[in-house]
Design brief:
562 residues; alpha+beta; five-stranded antiparallel sheet; 30 strands; rod-shaped; disordered N terminus
Length: 562
Amino acid sequence: MFQFCRRHKMPASAQRKLLSCHCLSEKGHHISSPSPDISRKGLRFKRTQPSEPEAVEDLPRWDSQRHKGPKFSFELLPEARAIRVSVPSGPEVNMRLCHQWALECEELSSPFDAQKTVSGGHTVDLPYEFLLPCLCIEASFLQQDTVRRKKCPFQSWPEAYGSDFWKSVNFTDYSQHSQMVMAPTLRCPLKLEASLCHRQGWHTLCEDLPNATARESEGWYVLEKVDLHPQLCFKFSFGNSSHVECPHQTGEPITPSWTVSMDTQAQQLILHFSTRMHATFSAAWSHPDLGQDSLVPPVYSISQTQVSSPVTLDLIIPFLRPGGCVLVWRSDVHFAHKHLLCPDVSHRHLGLLILALLALATLLGVVLVLILRRPLSGPGQPQPVLLLHVADSEAQRRLVGALAELLRATLGGGRDVIVDLWEGTRVARVGPLPWLWAARAQVVREHGTVLLLWSSAGSSPACGQDAGTAPLRALLRAAPRPLLLLAYFSRLCAKGDIPQALRALPRYRLLRDLPRLLRALNAGSATQATGWGRLGAPQCLRSHLELCRRLEREAAKLAHQG
């Protein structure tokens, strides 16, 4: 059952006034009117009377029932999109299809509006364009002023409210500014309901938006405060049937009232809004893992309040994290489509990669420079000196430290002087110590020299007996003779205190033979070393020499007292 509401062939106000007297809503009521039957082809003075009131409920009929109209039966042929009508034996009958409205059964559009004459006892196929709930079959005899018989059987058929019904409706879009307006033209007197829905894509369902029912007035459906967008659509419904109609989806495309573009700069995203009206725009970061319309606070907004048109606004937001996208929408309306913009930061990634490669290249360059500047084999490179001593008192250890500082200052050029204690008894017990082998490896690799500083403290375990020479032989194996020199302070050691195994080594008496020792250690130029004998030590080294002489006297004094 359906309500009669508006006919598109007459003004809505006049039709509603007319229908207010003739609309039916309860089963079993019929309309009687003395008015003639009206059609596009002029006036016809034929009375129309339904033959089966139960099948044509809520449809108009003539008051007079003195004569019965022609009898007929029908069969629906969906594949042929036709209705086959059978007429029993008798006079010829005119048959046609029509759409039942309040006062008349309106003819179908061409070429489906033709009437066909059927002889008694024969059948005829009446083609239809759309299977609609108001589609009726009308029969009348050929004589004038005869009763018409009508059957409107499709009101209760679900198929009549399917795709054919919505295809028969003509939707006209009148949306503008922030107002969404659509006017449907129907072929049946039905009142539709409409609400707003949002379609994520053209091949996805249109999801209903809450509190978005359109207001209907005179057949126009209106919804205020809407940001017009092709994906914000009207969902029209009648009963359990619905249809989605999007604005400007046919014909000329809609001209957007605002556009947005983006640009990246440093660690910021710049959104460029261009608008022709007063509006407020908002943007927030969104991440694919959180859902399509999920927002990551904060929300950034900007408003256009100027009268001039068009206006460009720039909204700057900082980058959140890689892989994120930005949701942009108009926020001064109730219903808006959110635009998802994903900035292309591939050039930023390329820049970071280039910076990383430059940093890596710089690091490799520094490492190469350091490697090249290290004291490697070859002439002119800084060569270390391993200074081994046998000092057994604090005074002698201070003297060894002063000698090491004197050698560092004299050798110069980044020469390294490594100082360590020579423990002959322990070497005799466990063999060459690991540190000695490590030091020897460095000295051999960098063409350095091992300088053994001997004193009377180290002579007793090694003098006179072959068994006592075991640690010295281990030292000779660890440091080959071309790399091994022997030095001693004259106040702390005499020539006779030097073990027999070491007497074949080059020996230097300190501090008298210091220039000769420096030449053996390749200290600067030969002229600088030989100049010590005639002109004395340079001024910068005299303090180191004086310190060594003083500490030698103190160590010798303590040794004689012990």
